[in-house]
Amino acid sequence: MARIALVCPAYYSHLRAFEALGQRLSALGHMPVYVLPEGAETMLEHASPATILLPHEPVSRVRALIGRASGITGVSGILKAVGEQAANTDRFCRLAPGLFRQEGIEAIVADELEPGAGLVASCLGLAHVSLACALPIERDPAMPLPFLDWPYDASEAGLSRNRGGELVGGLFMARQRAVIRRWSQRFGLGIRADDVACLSPALRLSQTVPGFDFPRPSDARLTPVGPVRAPATARTGADLPFAIAPDRPFVFASLGTVQGHRFDLFQTIAAACARFDVQLMIAHCGGLSRAQSERLDADWVVDFVDQQAILQRADLCVTHAGLNTVLDCLASSTPMLALPISFDQPGIGARIAHHRIGRTIAGRRVRPGNFSEALTDLLAHRADYARRIAPIRAEIESAGGTERAADLIDDLIARTVGRPIERRFDAAKTAANDSDHRPRELSAMS
């Protein structure tokens, strides 16, 4: 069995997926080691038997990064976010080779958001698996970039539009790509131009199932496994501690952990729902103060709730279009009113509109009028929306989830770990010594 590095950024939804995967890999006899920015270990739900903490990220710094991520808007915000990600990748490439060698890491399972993992895996000759917790970054030319809300268009006009989007996206990602090129050269890997070039050549896992995605070519390398979640008890919504009336529509609204502070948007949602004979629950995930919560005109305002159980009972979900929430809605056949705000949410909202399983309004364009119009349509035709969700729900149920993801990783490790591989530890050591900073001592919890 192998000692596996699980490389994950400091985002709650991504950490939940990696924790679930780590638990399953442990049950299969492997030894998962979480690789996190220092401070992010406090975000884990369960104590880990082993964690590698990459230095220079105290708790306050990690919290500040999450706080800034929640407010990313405009060109300047995107450039700042890319700059921070580039610095994270540079730090990872400097420190990970020595730490992984010290810890005896034999395989890497990495979030697609950290391209440095692919570079380090190639440098050290380690088995490598990519996991897309968000929309996959691997794309077909007819598929817009994940952070764009453009519809799917395989015509020449659509392809031309997407090429323009790629050009602008490349300008935004210039700092990150410069880091990737520099470290691929230092590691003796030639030149890798972008994050897609750093994905695993052997196994790429995705939570997004084909029925919810835009069309991909038949030779796409992605293996869809559906939601990667921890095992849960049966959730029917029947025993919730809320007196939900069965004869009135029930609307659940959540903007996730990163966007849960958006009080003005919650106010708009609550004011619009108040015009309808519906029951409204708002879950702000700890983003609002008590005073703000008390000012919202909703039947229930909570911080956290068993979302999967609530959605089993909900007639409609108002969501920021985060992938985890959307997958929960699809798994419970709950129509959505998506209000994408940032990251890959616009691309997810475009897919909701493409498959006609909900309505999408860009978060910055939400007004009482267009929100009420969409709400009227969804409540009046929710059976039609649920019927279109049904085949996607069936696909999610058969995709395999956490167990299949872990089994595929286990199979890859069985075929690769322990075989004679040319390892480039010397190249990694030389590259780290050539940098301005030395790898700090491993910070681990065992």
Task: Describe the model.
- The chain is an alpha/beta fold and 446 residues long.
- It contains 16 helices and 14 strands.
Widest sheet: strand ordering:
7-6-5-4-1-2-3-14
Rg (CA only): 22 Å
Major sheet attributes: 8 strands, mixed
Count of DSSP strands: 14
Number of domains: 2
- Count the DSSP helices: 16
Distance between the termini: 18 Å
Order of SSEs, N→C? EHEEHHEHEHHEEEHHEHEHEHEHEHHHHE
Q: Could you estimate the helical fraction of the residues in percent?
A: 40-55%
InterPro entries: Glyco_trans_28_C (IPR007235), UDP-glycosyltransferase (IPR050271), UDP_glucos_trans (IPR002213)
Protein name: Glycosyltransferase
Organism: Fulvimarina uroteuthidis
Pfam families: Glyco_tran_28_C
State the main characteristics:
Glyco_trans_28_C, 45% helix, 446 residues, 13% strand, globular, disordered C terminus, 6-stranded parallel beta sheet, 8-stranded mixed beta sheet, 2 domains, Rossmann fold, single chain, alpha/beta, 14 strands
Secondary-structure topology with pairs:
Layout: E1 3-7, H1 12-27, E2 31-37, E3 51-54, H2 59-69, H3 74-103, E4 107-111, H4 116-124, E5 127-132, H5 156-172, H6 174-186, E6 203-206, E7 222-224, E8 250-254, H7 256-259, H8 263-273, E9 279-283, H9 290-295, E10 300-302, H10 307-313, E11 316-319, H11 323-331, E12 336-338, H12 345-354, E13 358-360, H13 368-380, H14 382-399, H15 401-416, H16 425-434, E14 443-444
Parallel strand pairs: 1-2, 1-4, 2-3, 4-5, 5-6, 6-7, 8-9, 8-11, 9-10, 11-12, 12-13
Antiparallel strand pairs: 3-14
Helix pairs in contact: 1-15, 3-4, 3-6, 3-16, 8-13
Pfam families: Glyco_tran_28_C
Domain Glycosyl transferase family 28 C-terminal: 301-387
InterPro entries: Glyco_trans_28_C (IPR007235), UDP-glycosyltransferase (IPR050271), UDP_glucos_trans (IPR002213)
